[in-house]
Protein 1
Amino acid sequence: MIEASHLTKWYGRHEAVSDLSFQLGAGSIYGLLGPNGAGKSTTMNLMTGCLAPTAGTITIDGLDLYKNAQQAKGKLGYLPELPPVYPDMTVDEYLRFVGQARKLKGPALQARVDAVTAQTQVQDVRRRLIKTLSKGYRQRVGIAQALIGDPEIIILDEPTVGLDPKQIAEIRDLIASLRGKHTVVLSSHILSEVQAVCDQVLILDHGTLRASGTPVELERRFSGKAGLTLSVRADQPTVERILRSVPGIDRLVYTPQPDGTAKVTLEMDEARNEQVFLAFSKAGCPILQMQETKVSLEDVFLELTDHAEQEVAHGGDL
């Protein structure tokens, strides 16, 4: 559906996007995840044809976005970080205006306005001026304008920025409802947002693609060695003696606790939970608590984008 090949974008001497390539299929929700300055907004502007790349190409359903701009852009709906709404228009007037720009007219235009106002749940404010609406409703109107032409691809740049928790949940539900009917690409630096709605994640940093896959795949790919944390009532020599019978333990950290127990952290070449349990049981030393240590998407994100010492000079998300 969308294919980016070797995209590069320079702003003067700053390279905002560097040799970026990816493929996005139809009907799924994709998240561009990265810290501020990672290149998410620049990538989205390139994907929508709002910016021309310094090098590289983008195809939309097989159409070159720059050589076949009108046909390719007809397949796109775009919500920038700041919704492009006209505050002195009513919701109805604005959506009709956008629909006309999409070459809709007559009954077809009215049908699409009715459809997107219902889909984004703004029917009750259709005749109100946009400037009187809450930020959450303005975001919904912004998504409605992206949907008005019934495009195959919806691109949303930070769609929940500045919203309160209730509004965020509502916008997430709205985005999730688009799954299967549209290909959705959204950008965010909020991990919970990406995990809540996205089928696939692309992690960007300094304009490069650091990793991509489902949240579960990324967690598995970067999990490294298996981890296990135990709570036991035994001294360190006893714990070490018990665990000599368990092969593949690469690291053992023994930490005494104030209540007389000890926290034992193990790092192994593979999960050996049953063997560890049986070893302590055989020695007559009960395990009070056992917990697997798993890598989360947050751990993956921090591992791939931990560059605080290299803070981008411009301070914005290009």
Protein 2
Amino acid sequence: MKEFSNVVKKIRGHLQDDTSRFLFDNRLLYALTGDYDYINRIIMSLPQRKELDAAVQKCLEHVDDLVIWGAGNDLLILLGLYPDFPVRRLCDKDIHKQKSGWKGIPVMSPEELAGKKEDVYVAVNTSAYQEEIVEFLRGHGFAEERIINLGIITDSLYSAQYFDSEVMSPLEGEVFVDGGCYDCSTDKEFIKWCQGKYHKIYAFEPDGENYEKCLKKCKEEGIANIELYQKGLWDCDTELSFEAGGGQGSKIGEQDSENGRQDTNVIKIATAAIDDVVGDEKVTFIKLDVEGAELKALQGAARTIRTCRPRLAICIYHKPEDVIEVLEYILSLHDDYKLYIRHYQMSPCETIVYAI
């Protein structure tokens, strides 16, 4: 217990502001107890929560005429925050959802919704496509007072993730390692953040479907100086089990499944160590969102981190122990790293530690 207390004390000593200490303490208590109240404390501390409360109140004022656009993860988060929020009608571009509905709730197409501009209010509840959806609604004659944009509030939270201006600024000639690049959206944000003044991107994505999206996006949008690898990150080259969920549901590990159970979503993937891939490259920035493999990926980048001292942006929410083990390992590589912690979603997900 004394050793654990010393580790906690050491980590807290490297946290640079009250926000970081608040988030660390509550994530640690959540990890130790499983009490969701500690996550609620984090969510309630976000300035976007008050904005969302006000927007949700406006939705409730028009609940009988309300259509929610977005039947995906953002809707699950909304209902987690407001369990009594009445969802009666939905809109989504997904044809399968239009045919089968969502949890027994009918889902209309955007074209069907467009014919109801005089009859309904629309709660735009998707962060990634909120601008596109609002433009669609305006283009089809929806009055501004009938559009309630929840997505713009949550997008203001998500958009700072990994490139938080409160924490750091870009350097000239960045060399960026993107662990878990999904569809290369993060790489686009990186390029925007550094105003295109970068030298190279190394991007890793083990999910085959997502990897194809990355190839397509790189080609269509002209993402230059990027090396894309269909591999997961680990501390060595090996083959691991990967449960491909396409996004937040993905998992990586050394076992196929619990108790030998086979899952059709579990595939074998190749892995790589950052040290082996980048060689002597002067890496300036490493971002890791690798579905619970963050510590192993850091161990596979130990030489690069010791030699180049890159800034780090590492997820610490996939495993309860990450809030201690990942931070402790980072400090073992450089004990003068300054640590910041930030949270970017109104759920337990998307807590990031920055090492500067």
Protein 3
Amino acid sequence: MKALTKTDFKFPGLKSVYHGKVRDVYNINDDLMVMVATDRISAFDVVLPKGIPFKGQVLNQIAAKFLDASAQVVPNWKLAVPDPMVTVGLKCEGFRVEMIIRGYLTGSAWREYKAGNRTICGITLPEGMRENEKFPHPIITPTTKADEGHDENISKEEIINQGLVSKEDYEIMEKYTYALFEIGTKIAAEKGLILVDTKYEFGKRDGKVYLIDEVHTPDSSRYFYSEGYEERFEKGEPQRQLSKEFVRQWLIEHNFMNQPGQTVPEMTDDFVNSISDRYIELYEHIVGEKFEKDEHDDLTSRIEKNVTSCLQTLCKK
């Protein structure tokens, strides 16, 4: 199967387009957004040279399911999924921060803790914690949303004092973040998984705060397998993870972490197909359903047809 790595659609009402690392976002009449989940894959802030067949479909369909599962609790931007790789929804003005919530001490938070830091984003962490240990309560560690370079950790107080988000809006985002994490944790537990940490993005439209972008996908979230977690934790062994961490590990093993002088290793067809298989495996674990490959010789034509039809219907409403 071919992978969709580049898009250049001319949808009706198109005002502008933003090409992200993985998603291409089309602005329709400054009212709707068409978000295309491409098959591009990024790691260490670099888009890798080859796309991964079905990756976009996997991410888009996982996000759609979680958006639907939480819509009664947290309003979100989604209106329709006209194509397996596309979500259409309300255009919101995005906040310049990402809400990262952590249930366990792992990843960058653990690296900071191990280095002796006991405060992260203004939150004081208990002494004596170990890697992958569960926090007494989930903690929110926001970051700035950078146009270029790395996002930076920032505290709630700094966000409000710098005027990035008003106190009122931040407290709504905070409430929604805890509620979403609780929903995601419950759904994950039913699938034999632990939702370890994740990120949410929010925006505002007509004075109302909405959840935007993807949610609870393996690109935006970290999952552990529940089975064996306690035993591995007690022994100090690495946890079995369900995320795209395996891609990062492959790059590290091939001496690439986007450092000066390093080049991306060759991605063979066999390796690309193995990543595709892993993403499908992730889907089936997280969603609990068999993944149905929507195979098509011309993904661009299929998307253009499906989205155009959807926009004609939505714009009539």
